[in-house]
Amino acid sequence: AFQTPTGMPYGTVNLLHGVNPGETPVTCTAGIGTFIVEFATLSHLTGDPVFEDVARKALKALWKNRSDIGLVGNHIDVITAKWVAQDAGIGAGVDSYFEYLVKGAILLQDKELMSMFLEYNKAIKNYTKFDDWYLWVQMYKGTVSMPVFQSLEAYWPGLQSLIGDVDNAMRTFLNYYTVWKQFGGLPEFYNIPQGYTVDKREGYPLRPELIESAMYLYRATRDPTLLELGRDAVESIEKISKVDCGFATIKDLRDHRLDNRMESFFLAETIKYLYLLFDPDNFIHNDGSDFDVVVTPYGECVLSAGGYIFNTEAHPIDPAALHCCRKRREEQWEVEDLMREFYSQKKTKKFTLKRAPDRGEGENAKDPEDASSEKAGEKRNSKKISHSLLSCPSQSFNSKLAVLGQVFLDNT
């Protein structure tokens, strides 16, 4: 999918046959910019950099093609890099691109990703923000094209809380909450000047975004208003949408008619964020006082200390796992490991997991960051030591397969 002149991926790829010859080259911005969290995780855990590399290239291509006033549009041609839909905003078609710049920056401790988002944030405030609402504007001129609020935009206050902009986040959240109270849910589109739903966009498929923001903001502020939203959401969903086989999409919030479907994100996100909003002691909220110390071939490291990053479908990723498995001075170790495993296999038919000591260091020498993590851990009350179930890469993924004689061919 990523093999395009721009590095931006096609929207759809057939996993058996590749990109369909008739596939459209037009992809939405979110479809291009929502890979770095999962793909960087995959690269760190396998040792194969290709996943993170293509995700970064796609992010940088969007950044390169932003407008002179710092905005990105809704859909772009991945072959020519020409913007096909030039509406700029924070909602559908764009939303998770901004989300992943922030979450990718936090997960990977990446200043470049965060600086990209902060530049976008300035442009968004300058051109799309009006009275703590965010409108849609023309990406080159900044003129308003749609004065609407989309329910998908309700993730934004939660994202603002992640960068510490809590005051602005709360003001915007309260605007969105007034819409919830008006209808018992968030319509897909809400006309801000008219204060009512938009024709043919009156439905509420039990989306999670407003509850997601409430969860993040409650962790930051402990404001009871956020628990009130959670209570309202539970009561509304229970009373309006519960049916024999699940919870149905609300087809029209004006009369609460139901549709015969239940979206997967209701289970993956909506009720998960509600649960976490009301469960202060959940392991996801761990502040670092409880953690596991795991033994790896290259020393000890810390896992499960908190700071989990949710991907856009609310699946948590432990950043410590990436830190634990990241490639440390790989260039130096790779030849050593390959030679050691080769001779070990030749002599004993077994593999050794020990690494030769670094120059001037002991055999179990640790990365300075790992050492500081352990010192901090010694001061805490709860600490478990176990052997890691992670298979941290000692060399690149392809090299490892070759060494073990497990080279997979295309026809395997």
UniProtKB/TrEMBL annotation:
Basic and acidic residues composition-biased segments: 355-380
GO CC entries: endoplasmic reticulum quality control compartment; membrane
Main location: endoplasmic reticulum
Organism of this sequence: Pomatorhinus ruficollis (streak-breasted scimitar babbler)
Enzyme class: hydrolase
Gene: Edem2
Subcellular location: Endoplasmic reticulum
EC number: 3.2.1.-
Pfam family name, one: Glyco_hydro_47
Domain of life, source organism: Eukaryota
Coiled-coil zones: none
The UniProt record lists the keyword Calcium: yes
Cofactor: Ca(2+)
Binding site for Ca(2+): T312
Keyword Metal-binding recorded: yes
Family classification: Belongs to the glycosyl hydrolase 47 family.
Record keywords: Calcium, Endoplasmic reticulum, Glycoprotein, Glycosidase, Hydrolase, Metal-binding, Unfolded protein response
Region (Disordered): 353-386
GO molecular function per UniProt: calcium ion binding; mannosyl-oligosaccharide 1,2-alpha-mannosidase activity
A biological process from GO: response to unfolded protein
Record's protein name: alpha-1,2-Mannosidase
